[in-house]
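Limitations
The structure tokens in this dataset are predictions for the assembled complex, not deposited experimental models. Users should treat interface geometry with appropriate caution, especially where small molecules or nucleic acid strands are included. An illustrative entry is reproduced here so readers can see what is and is not provided.
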Amino acid sequence: MERNDAEPAKRGRGRPPSVEVRRRILETAAVVLLENGVSEVTFDKVARRAGVSRMTLYKWFRSPGSLALAAFEDTYAHTLRPPSSGDVWADLRTHLREFVANLSEPRTGPMIAGLLGSAQSDPVLAEEISATFTRPRREGAVELLHAGRTRGQLPASIDVEVLVDQLWGACYARLLLPEGVLDEAFADALVANLRATIHASAD
Amino acid sequence: MERNDAEPAKRGRGRPPSVEVRRRILETAAVVLLENGVSEVTFDKVARRAGVSRMTLYKWFRSPGSLALAAFEDTYAHTLRPPSSGDVWADLRTHLREFVANLSEPRTGPMIAGLLGSAQSDPVLAEEISATFTRPRREGAVELLHAGRTRGQLPASIDVEVLVDQLWGACYARLLLPEGVLDEAFADALVANLRATIHASAD
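Predicted assembly:
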């Protein structure tokens, strides 16, 4: 077999081959997830396409849903960190726009909706989604809003945890409920509504 | 057979027996839905329990999901109308508390979550849920907020459609996402956050 790896073999020695196998599995699962949706991510299909045994998948992933989620996390975890410019309004707009772009992208949107849909009848998948996706995102959002409140850009009496549901949660609702458009204008309107109420008495 | 109906037979003549059959089917489906969840509402089970043929069910309902939704609508449609006291804050609190009580009730909460979960992979069910449940609720909510804006209780610049997602949508998010508690305190906190921002500049 040809060897294309330019790195010295010595460096590769400490790296267990299982890391490479896992990488290949996750990439394969991500492709299936994006192309066909969560219901098509089966151990059979991913094992065949990735050229690994089904036993390997059973060993590492509790269920096809867990595998799909791990593949999703691997691809999208980098979008979870909030910006921090010092201006809560700029940060909110940037972060919510990015979030909405993610949720409304023709491939990732249905994928996230599908995972959350499956989670309604799979409590373990629900907990996995929380641990890898929705909880880290919430923590980032809380951090962003806390900073704004500390800087006096948001009223001191505001409940930051609840405000997360009124901004990010509203986006999830538009994703998962049958009516309502989820687009950049909606992201901006969420922030505008918050500003409108804050500035109402000053007008 | 014994006849318990106190109404004259003449009056009953114009009423097709199919109405009674339909009623029995919906009541049976509602019981299965409440006791076992949406995945257990099958044509087989409901036909057997209601003492009707499966053909009857196929004739009237597109899918078991549609049947479950019709049963749900039949039981819960009366909770969709918003109050209208003239005070937007009182109305919001009352209506959101009632909504949250519905969504967090141990039997109806998982039922609604299950229907919305199934809808993620069933676009026709999604449209049916919208037509019978989420859209009428949204319309009632918009009406309530519009009235408050007209009375000057909400800023004139507020986007009422988006505000619905920031109040009711936030509750759906808490129902469907794995973290976050959905209780009366949350309903009150949603309203309190809105008031906090409105009164922030006046403080």
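Some entries come with short summary sentences. For this one: The CA atoms of residues 83 and 91 of chain A lie 6 Å apart.
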